[in-house]
Amino acid sequence: MSTPLPLRIRRGLRLPRTLWLLPPLAVLGLVFFFPLYELVQQSLSGGAAHYLRVLHAPIFLSALGHTLQIGLLSTLGCLLLGGVLAVLLAFVPFPGSSLLSRFIDAFLAYPSFLIALSLTFIYGAAGLVNASLMQLLHTSVPPLNFLYTTTGVVLAETTFYTPFVLRLLLAAFGTIERAQIEVAQSLGASPWQVLREIIAPAALPALLAGGSLTLMLTLNEFGIIFYLGAKGVITLPMLIYGKAIQEFDYAQASVIAVVSIVLSLALYALYRLSFNRLQRDHALPL
Amino acid sequence: MNAGTPSLPLPGALSAPGSHAEREPAASIEHIRFDGVGIRYGRQTALSGFDLTLHAGEALALLGPSGSGKTTALRALAGFIPIAEGHIRLHGRDISGLSPQQRGFGIVVQNYALFPHMSVADNVAFGLRARRLPRAEMRTRIEHYLELVGMRQYARRRPLDLSGGQQQRVALARALAIRPDVLLMDEPLSALDAPLRREMLGELITLHRELPDLTMLFVTHDQSEALALADRVGLLRDGELLALDVPKRLYDRPPNRFTAEFLGQTNLLAVEIPQHPDNDDMLNVCLGKQVLRVPRPDDWTGAPGPGWLCLRPHLLSLEPAAGMNNRLDSRVLGAEWKGSHYRIELEAEGQTLHVEANAALPPPAVGNRTTLSFAPTAGWLLARDV
């Protein structure tokens, strides 16, 4: 009677290992795989001809162009602005730099649509800048009218996503040995050479990670464009919203959504590929 | 030595102990001068009224415990930290306001600070690129300095593929490749294990011999490194330079108690000094009831009073020998085997002292009385207030 008991205990210990996988799989299936499956199935309901028709439609091509343009320009803006700010915060300490750094942390929790709202208060038709300029120039027409164009969207997205790049860069700069910079200076390197040859290679993985993260987020950004009310700027997420919510054309919306997902995944794969190649060629620190 | 890393062509100077330490600075042309330098970190004073002159071509070691200000002095000279007061002069010219780039010093630091994404050759080339040297000249220098430190065959490797000792050699080649006339070294051997440290020390001594025009400032907390490498040693405590002299004189004739205790093992015995005639080269000092004869320090005022008798453990003997005219009756408290010798603990006139005894002979039994002997010249007298 006493022999089978340990066997049962051993079996009981083995079972939970597989059981532990089930809850996360069930949650993933419910919130991710099932909606994705439904989306893909819905997009295929019209067959290949439907796909071709949607993908060749001028409105889709225009939205794709806008999406890539805004995504790439905003990412570039974030990398440039984030890079400059990170270098200043990490290597050129000034009074209040730590306070600014903490503010950036808090900024990450800021909702994106509030950025759009803030920019409207500053650059909008009745915003601070336009109101001042109208008074100064004695005109009733707002002189600045870029906020509701692609430029305005890029400005808003750059403002909102720069802290994401900045935070990653500051973390990467924190790992650079200060002695390396000092030795480089002692060897006669100019600040530009130190930045180019010591700091930049060490920050490259963070720059790539920040860039790819920003690119994926800006490609799928909806709230900022929606709140800015830039009517002429139709991106893929805006087009999906229009087709699904305003026109109830779920089939077409699903096709565009699938293309949007494929685009994001392709860009992510490209990022991983270039990162791995860089790591192999230059022995990146990450 | 790590496997596969060739040594410098000359043997390490550790093979000739004493010869280097006795050397007086060859040149006395002033190269670098700290002139009343003060450095503060917030409210904390790291260096205060610091005066020090380095002669051209000499190796000077700054030695001291953690927080003594030795690294601060080196970093100030390198231009990494601003000085609050005083001046630093190079060949008489005030360089206090110059950036590290403008000073042109070579520097080697504890953790090597090699650039991990560059090859060994690129690391050495870094300073040469900054100086925009022609390619052919760069190639010649890279090969020469990598050869000098025995790392030529590792030119294409990344620093992370090298051992600690190899990385430090590359750091040295990188610093020397710009042909500085001043080489600063901040604890360059601290990150290495003991055998590698000994080997690298020998190679640094060889380097100093091979580059006689190179002025070296070497910061360390390890007295054996300082004594072996330096032409002169400066001893710091709490941001003040307490002693500065050639290593042997500093060891044999320490100017104060801190130097006596920090440099090597020592016995400091409280003694009384009676009144002496001014013309006597030797003094009689009283350790309890026992009278010992020791050299009269040059700066001795002649006034009677208390003093410290400094006796190095290896200069005391349990076996009387010729010339060891001082005798000290003592009792054995313990014996500790140290491999090369026994460290015997004794008590004499209520004071504890240590002796290094021959490991080939059995140590005296604990509790036995014994007579210690030492030559009069083995003792060194310090005033009680220093």
Question: What does this 3D model show about the protein?
Answer:
The complex is a heterodimer of chains A (286) and B (386). By secondary structure, chain A is mostly helical. Helices cover 80% and strands 0% of the residues of chain A. Chain A has helices at residues 4-19, 22-44, 47-56, 58-91, 97-107, 112-123, 128-137, 150-174, 178-186, 191-219, 223-228, 236-246, 250-282. Chain A is globular and about 70 Å long. In chain B, 23% of the residues lie in helices and 33% in strands. Chain B has 386 residues and is an alpha+beta fold. Mean pLDDT of chain B is 87; it is low at 1-27. Chain B has helices spanning 70-78, 100-103, 120-130, 135-148, 164-177, 194-210, 223-229, 247-252, 257-262, and strands at residues 30-41, 44-55, 59-63, 85-90, 93-94, 106-109, 182-186, 215-220, 232-237, 240-245, 267-273, 282-287, 290-295, 305-311, 326-337, 341-348, 351-358, 369-374, 379-383. In chain B, the strands form five sheets. A six-stranded mixed sheet of chain B has the order 6-7-8-3-9-10, with helices on both faces. Chain B is elongated, with a radius of gyration of 24 Å. Chain B starts with 29 loop residues before the first strand and ends with a strand. The chains are: A mainly alpha (286), B alpha+beta (386). Chains A and B meet through α9 and α10 of A and α2, β6, α3 and α5 of B.
